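Researcher: Please generate the 3D structure of the following complex. Treat every line as part of one assembly.
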Amino acid sequence: MKNQKLSFHKWMQSIGINFMIITILVMACKKKEIETPFPNNTSYQLFTTPLKRPATVSGTSASFTASAASAEVVPGSNTSVLAYNNSVPGPTISINFGQTLNINFLNSLSEGTNMHWHGLDVPANQDGFPTSIIGSGANFNFSFPVNNRAGAYWYHPHPEGATASQAYKGMAGFFIVRDAEESSLNLPSGDYEVPIAIQDKRLDGNNQLIYNPTSNDIMTGWLGDKIVVNGVYAPYLGVATRFYRFRVLNGSNARIYNLALSNGADFYVIGSDGGLLAAPVSVQSLMLSPGERADILINFGSYSVGTEIYLQSNSFTSMSQGNEFKIMKFKVDKNEVETFSLPSSLSVINTLSPASADTIRSFILKADPMGSMPGMSGMHTINDKIFDAARVDEMVKAGATEVWEIENTSDEPHPMHIHGVQFLVLQRTGGRNSLIATENGWKDTALLMPGEKIKIIMKFSSNPGKFVFHCHNLEHEEDGMMLVFEIM
Ligand SMILES: [Cu+2]
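Model: Done. Output below.
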């Protein structure tokens, strides 16, 4: 903490701004984080709006239209958003392993966009490479086989320069893959399986989204003071006295959640970005950074009707975030007989041996505030480079097994995401010095807090072409913290 403050101070001195002014600014920023109660409408009661479930698209073909739309982020008022099929979050795609998905996509936005299938192994021309743009008014037919095991994946835009703003304004949705192994576990389903996308927003006095990051916002990433779940600010879910399965997505641009229940109760982590863990892990809190998913079970079976429990984010140490705040409320409202029993084993994780790796690569993450001037990119780098779509930074042999070592030498957290592959985290040194529950399974995004180094292993797809890997703090990504690898 002391070092972080020192380097921040040094930075500010170096650009010649008085330290006291900066201290005041930093304090103002801290104070602004997570305002409650809702400031613009004193009659608005938090946690009184029912949780919304996005519509589900089942089957193997669908039409998606991206367009400007309006959403009730705050009940009773219309917020201008960008949406898929006028829905925030976008429709949940639910599909079986091995099926081929066809999406007829129309871009009715006034700007270019594309779609990235986060966590899925898809051909390069389907993956939403940042410069492969579907222009305003244009169509594109996505078609790819679903080769990933059962899990909660997701989709969002990935155009260079507009990923952060489009995702923030509402363009994101779940992509749920099912398979026979998972079905055999009889996990809570239907009403008892609830996808929840957690995001943070800044709203103006008319409940319109604000998105105008300053260079300080680019350092920290864009942080909102209103936590929305499935597109709605401060909702609640009525629950019965039994187990529920929550497919949790951190769809925020920059905010990390340290998920916990307000009564301190344990919950079970059963899956991660790339599907089920080998066995449930009981935890009292779980860090979830932008882009990551957690499959969790909460047992409401021992509570009496009328009990209220919050899903909250516990405090953690970080320079620009980490306050404790509430996310949503669970209201136990009916007694039901439990039909589910927690299995002791869930799946088999076929590990990869580092000895079998074809290549070992090293990456150093840096955040140098002197690296850019306002309006330019380049504060955030990987191996001292910023994104260049025309440059191939790493060449990967099709089907190769590789070990990547990634080290965060900056003062800020970086959730690192690799396209088109699922990896296993072998080790974390520095900082937290250990793996967390979700890292017992397949990952496509892993958090590096300041000073941390992770070692990951993965077997790349045989789909040839150019893909990206990047920080999923979307302001960092837009700032250039993204490189290109080519599978050949
Ligand atoms: Cu980052």
